[in-house]
Amino acid sequence: MDTQVLSVSVDSIYVHKMWNDHELSKMVEGGVPFPMLSDAGGGVGSLYGVYDAASGVELRGRFIIDPDGIIQACEVLTPPVGRNVGETIRQIQAFQLVREAGGMAATPSGWLPGKTVLKPHPDLVGNVWQAWSVAED
Amino acid sequence: MPTDFKPGCVRPKSTLAAAAAPADTAVAVVKEEIHVAKVGGLAPDFELAGYQQGGFKNFRLSEYRGKWVVLCFYPGDFTFV
Q: pLDDT above 90 covers what percent of chain B?
């Protein structure tokens, strides 16, 4: 996968350290491995459309950015519901596969590594039902 | 590479890519520089102070060009999920 995670909230870097030291390091051995960034004031969150000025905090926004700096996917949740890390990993694997294929591949709904990959081609038009089954979803 | 950050009492300022635009740039051009995130578009660049594995550093998104990046925003430290 070789993917860099960056987390961002409006908290100060000192609070990030305290959260890591006092709670997260008890959940993850060795503590949080990736940079925990401080976006005091929500300037960056505003650029990404996830800063809520009324509450002064950022929503659970997740952006997958490719090696060219292009945003390939995003998901935004309100605070009470946590993310599904497995789905994020699945999407990264799918985007990496498509990129390595130079755009000559497409992953159907529910795709997982090892499952059918479609190759867009004039002959595939109207014939997806032969190449892929709904049962795979 | 992330640069060292010297912790102090003053809150670190974040740097948005647009802030690097020359002061005499026409307003229209500046508006174009400040682009918001859009799926399929270039991720807006920024530099923020951060904590990682015992140290404070400044991190710039564009330093990770050539790698896949997952950028995760969340409401706050010590929130529950």
A: 52
Query: How is residue A24 annotated by DSSP?
Result: I
Quote the ipTM score. 0.92
Size of interface A-B (CB pairs under 8 A): 190
Residue of A nearest to B10 (CA): A12
Q: Which two tokens stand for residue B63?
A: 């330093």
At residue B17, the pLDDT reads: 66
Q: Tell me the pLDDT of chain A averaged across its residues.
A: 94
C-beta of residue A8 within 8 angstroms of C-beta of residue B71: yes
Beta-bridged to residue B57, according to DSSP, are B4, B50
**Per the CB < 8 Å rule, is B52 touching A35?**
yes
Alpha helix segments (H runs only) across chain A = 13-19, 25-27, 43-47, 85-100, 128-131
**Cβ neighbours of A19 in B, within 8 Å:** 77-78
